[in-house]
Each structure stands twice: as structure tokens, then as C-alpha cells.
Amino acid sequence: MPRERPIYSDFFYDPLTEDVEELLARFQQSDSIRYEYFSAAWRQMGFSDVFIGIVSMAEQKRFSRVTLATAVKYFLPPYSYQIRVGGLYLMFGLYNTQLAVPPVQIRFALKDWDIIQKFLKDSVNSGHQDVVYIYHKLVAAKAIHFTAMPHFLSFLKLRKRKQKTVCAGFIGRTMAVQELFSADILEEVSNIESQYEKLKENTVAVRCEASMTQRDFTARLKDCMAEFLTWQQKTFSQAEADNKGNGGGGDDDDEEEEEDEDEEERDYKASSSRARLISSIKQKSYSNFQEAPKARRHRQPQKVKVESSSSGSEQHYESGRKRKPASLRARTWKSLGVTKDESRMQVWLLSAPEQNERVPVKRIKQTPPYKE
Amino acid sequence: MAASKNANTNIPDYEYTDVNTDIFHIDSFRTEWLNRLHPGDFSYQPGDQDSSDALFAEEMGISADTMAELKTVCSLDSLRCHPEDQPPDTDVVPPDPTLKTLIQRKKKQDYRDTRKISKNRHDLYADELERLTFGKKSETLDDMVPEGEILLNVNVYYPAIFEKFTHVRPHITVLMMGSHTLAELRDAICCVSDLQVCGEFSNTPDMAPDFISKDHFKSAFFYFEGVFYNDMRYPECQDTSITTIEWAKDRNFPTYTQAKMEDTRFVDLKIKVGFPYLYCHQGDCEHLVIITDVRLTHKDDCLDKKLYPLLTHKHRVSTQKCAVCHVYIVRWVTTNDRFAPSNPCLFCDKCFRMLHYDTEGNKLGEFQAFPYVDRGAFN
Ligand SMILES: [Zn+2]
Ligand SMILES: [Zn+2]
């Protein structure tokens, strides 16, 4: 009798990946990296139950290994900082609730070590105490195996691997062009360019010979980016509208934040309200990351002063805290509903390639199982 | 992947994503890790949350109050999904699961219940192996696996002797320390062909010896990355790799070199993790050898040197049952046997004799008979 591969012996397990993405999506919706938002989402989904119902310890171990590998996947690039924090919290949650005895360890590969240390350093510098503390707790609990590679590798013994799909909404990339547009890079490039042309003009010998540069490079780059942003805006304007409506009680906060950023944004009028929305979402999350721990320390918002942080983050402190429980709850409930689901998911797809359209489909399908 | 490949060749990276790594030197890899870690990170001391918390607060410059709040917010209670006095039954999937994982698991469980499929025997065995050695400390300090030692997970695959009867390729998994030699791995590999009797005994079934041991053919080699590691521990050992090396030389292959397996420790090796290598013994019994994992030791590992090499997985091959009675373990293989329903065919000793010999023990009809050692006999 041909023997089947034992269950959970692959690196990842699709239903679990879906559960994890749902959890991280809820965390992402909170616009925060505070641990309490994560743990709230965890409890709401009853996430520790993923370990229930496995009788065999060997199977339990294999499953633990899969869960931890999944968490580590989101802890590492290419995901956005917020999702990576979610991955770290997930490692903590899964490690501590697994039912395997002795517990299965989290695998850190040598090649990822520098990336992890960078993440920690950034978190320390930004004062994200809960992020750093959760990491320290894992280290103190001896929860980590220091390995050669993230997974066990056995060559021929592989099953056909499915194409890895990366959840587009979890990647910071959606703002890349926007960022480039708003950064002073274009100006810088144009300065360098004119400087270069000047030097060239002054050097008779090369004036006619050298023709590697394009004089209108900056302008053309700008056009390209503007074109992309217009496309992005057109394609996802629906998502934007929905998203704004979705904000519910948080609408005021959004405006507040947009005002704060107006100064920075005045430069690029070409970018639409859509771009500002994206930008504000991003700013919001980062500001929340920084303020809360300070609040723990001082208990007084006005004392909040972060040396290293990005500009304008202090002002967001209050809005970050204010919107907390109601908004999360409201949004999460909404996400459980059928109708709102679709619009919520489009937020993920800000600049996702077409093939990722399977994501909303998948999410919508999620409702029926509740009564199964 | 290729683009982000690390310049330092002792930091393993994928050669083929998710399949195998580039070549690296194991001891240098170990050094790279040790250079990056604090001794406490890989020490066997149990983690002490309180002193670690204190240290953390100091390093981060956090006040006692803030630390207390952090502790509360990040406590393990924050992960509790059921009231403390109503813990769930962890053996059974709850009736109306919402997590995708549980929905799938419930389907499987319901199916299993209807089919009354019992627990995988192999899993049971693995549980048992694990339980015996977890966190096991040695009696004396000398026998303690040192902190910062390397552990390698080595899979040794069994050749299919009779393809017809083999649907899966079974293997054993051995946990080796970096300080072990290849000869120690060799001694840990138990292969039926070391016990296999050669010869046809249909005319004199009583003459078939029970088993013969390794002693007749001591020569063996491992092959890793262009080097043949020969077992030269015994005077009668031959360098069985020389044939291959000469052959390759004649054909303009890259040059292979030789070394002694008893002088080569794992930390001395340059290997690719996940890549198939070779163990060859008995002249022609070839096993794939794959190092599936290399890592630093951990406090929960078996820490008693004497228990290594540590067998952590043994494919529990279902023993081949006699084609006639379906009860007893196979002892004979016959070929060109007109009494048999298949060719070759497997028989237990009793059925084999009843079917192929008269009461006086005279051979009936034409066939060849070979003694057979079932892999399952080692379970
Ligand atoms: Zn063999
Ligand atoms: Zn029989």
C-alpha cells in the first residue's frame, strides 16, 4: 500500500497561511504596532486553537514547526515593518501556546541574522519597547535554534512546490513611487544633472564626445511617475472611497492627520487625495508605533519627544490612542460581515498585480464556514 | 537568491531555493554563529525571565512602573483564548471551528473516525524515541555535549532491494555531533545488506546460514563534494573508491581525492545542506546520504554524548508478509517458481517448505530460492 506523506511535513500549510494572513490583516487594520492590538486580534480569532485536535505528538511537532516557520516568514522581508512586527508577535504567540512537548524551537538562519539585528536596532531606536521586549522574552525562553537554513532540506524528497504567493497588501512597496515622488530625490537629481552639464560644457575635450546623459532625464522620470500614480489612482479609486467610508469613527482622525502632512505634501499637487490617503495611513502606523511606549514611560503626551524619529510623528500621538478599541472592534466586526469584506480587501491591493485578485475572492468565501 | 547571495561563503545560502544550499565549511559556519551570539544565547542554563527582564529594563532605560506595565501587557495571559477555568479539550477539534486550519483538521478527523484509521505506527515510534532523549543530561561533566557544539541531522536512505515490493523509500535519521567522525556515522547505519545472505539454496534450504555479519566486507566509503572518505580502520579494508577515481581520471572528469573516514570529523567537511551524497558498502550497496539540517545545540537536546549518534527517525517499514499465509514474516524469495502467484515471490519459512518440498524434504519442481532478510525485522 503506497504510504502517503504524513500531514504537516511541508514547509507551510495553506489553511494555516490563510489563518495567519487573516490575523495579520486584522492587526494591519489597527494601524498600530502595539502588542495589545495584536493580542486582541489573536484572542478574537481564538488563534491558540490552531493546535487543538492533534493527538499524535509527532504530528503535533511537525505542525508546530510549520506554524513557527510561517511566523518567521512574516517576520522577515519583504514585508512592511508593521507586518514584520506582527510576525514577531506571532512567533511569540505560537511558541508559547504550542502543545508540543518539549516545545519546538523557532529557526533563525545565519543568513537572516543581520536582517533580524537591523530590525531590532530600528525598533530600539524608535523606542518600540513592546516589540523589543517580546523579542527579548523569546531569547530568554531559549526559544530559538541557530541554524544553517530556515527549513530542513532533503532534496529529492520534495513534493512539487506550489508557487509562493506573497500577500501584496503586506508589503510596503505600494507606496514606493509615491515616496520617490515626495522625496527630494528628483530635485537632487536635477541639481546633479545641471552641475554635470556645466562641467561638461567647460571641458572642451569631452563636450561633443560624451552623450551618455539625457538632459530631460528628471522631467521624463517625473512624467513616468505621474503616469503611474494616475493609473494607480484610477484603478483603485473605488478602493479609496470604500476605505474612507470604512474608517467609521476614525474619520476625524484621518483628517487631522492629513492636515499634519499637508506641509510635506504641498509639493506634489499632482498626487491626488488617494496618494495622501496612502501616505497618511503609513504615517499613522509609524506614529502609533512610537508614541505608545513613550506614553507608558511618562504618562504625559506633551513630554513625548523622540530624537531619532521621522518628522511630524509626535502630533499623531493622541489620535493614535484615541481611536483604539472602538475602531478595531468595529472594523473587525465589519470584516466578518459579507458586504464590507470586499471593500476592505481592496485596500490590500493598492498596487497589486492582477493575479493577486484571488485574494478578495478567497476572503469572501470565508463567511460560509462559520456555520459549517 | 542569486542576486542577494552572500559574499561570505561560510554563511549558507540557497543554491536552489528550498532545495539545497551552496557549499560551506561546517566549522567556519559554527564560528560565524558563535561570533554573532552572546554565550547566554546558546547556553544550557534555563532561561530566567526575571533577571532577563531586569537586564532589559536597564538596557532600555525603562522605569520600574513602565516595566511592570509592559510585563502585564505582554504576559502569556494575553494569548489565552478560553477562560482559565474552562480549558478546551486539546484532543478534539471543537464542533464549529472558524479557523481554516481547524476546518480542514475536522474534516480529516471525521473521515478518520468513519474509517477507524488508527494512529500512524511510525509516529508512535517517533514519539517514543523523542521522549527517551529529550533534554537528557549526562552523568558526568565529561560526557556532556559542550555548549556551542554543532548538531547535524543526517538522513540515510535505503536502496530498494526488490523494487516490486517497495513503494516508499525508507530512511533513518541520525543526529550527529560536529565532533563525530564519518566512521561513527558508518557504524550507526544498519543495513540489511550487511546481513544479507548471498546464494541460491533451493536444493539445500537447511544449509542456508541464518545471517552473516559485516565482517566479511569491511570496505566502505562516503562521498562528499569530490572527496571519497574510505574506511581504513581494519587491515583487510580496501580502498573501494579507487576504481571510481581511476575511471574518472580516464574520462577527464574533475579529479576526485581521497581521505580516511575515521580521520574526518563533520566539522571538517565542506558540504551543501539538502544535497544528496553517497554511502557505499558491500561493494555495491549504495545509500543516499542527505544532511538536512545543521545547527547549534540547544538545552532541550539530548546532552549526553554517550547517546550519540542518536537515531531520531526510523522508517517503520511494514514487514513483508508471506504471500500464502499473510501472517508470517518473509524468509524466502523465489524466482521462476511455478507454484508462486508472482515472480519473484515471498514466502515465510513454513509455507515455503510446505509448498516446495515433500515430506522427505525433496525439492518439487524447478525454482530458485534465496534467503531473505526483511527490513522490518529491524523494527
Ligand atoms: Zn546498504
Ligand atoms: Zn506463510
TrEMBL record, chain A:
InterPro entries (UniProt xref): SNAPC1
Pfam short name (any one): SNAPC1
Stretches with biased composition (Low complexity): 270-282
Skewed-composition ranges (Acidic residues): 250-265
Positions of region (Disordered): 237-332
PANTHER family xref list: SMALL NUCLEAR RNA ACTIVATING COMPLEX, POLYPEPTIDE 1 (PTHR15131), SNRNA-ACTIVATING PROTEIN COMPLEX SUBUNIT 1 (PTHR15131:SF3)
Record's protein name: snRNA-activating protein complex subunit 1
Species name: Pagothenia borchgrevinki
Automatic annotation (TrEMBL), chain B:
Record flagged with keyword Cell wall biogenesis/degradation: no
Keyword Nucleus found: yes
Keywords associated with the record: DNA-binding, Nucleus, Transcription, Transcription regulation
Pfam families: SNAPC3
InterPro entries hit by this protein: snRNA-activating_su3 (IPR022042)
GO molecular function, one term: DNA binding
Main location (coarse class): nucleus
Location in or out of the cell: Nucleus
Domain of life: Eukaryota
Gene Ontology, cellular component aspect: nucleus
PANTHER family found in the cross-reference section: SNRNA-ACTIVATING PROTEIN COMPLEX SUBUNIT 3
Subunit structure: Part of the SNAPc complex composed of 5 subunits: SNAPC1, SNAPC2, SNAPC3, SNAPC4 and SNAPC5. SNAPC3 interacts with SNAPC1.
Biological role stated in the UniProt entry: Part of the SNAPc complex required for the transcription of both RNA polymerase II and III small-nuclear RNA genes. Binds to the proximal sequence element (PSE), a non-TATA-box basal promoter element common to these 2 types of genes. Recruits TBP and BRF2 to the U6 snRNA TATA box.
Assigned protein family: Belongs to the SNAPC3/SRD2 family.
Name of the protein: snRNA-activating protein complex subunit 3
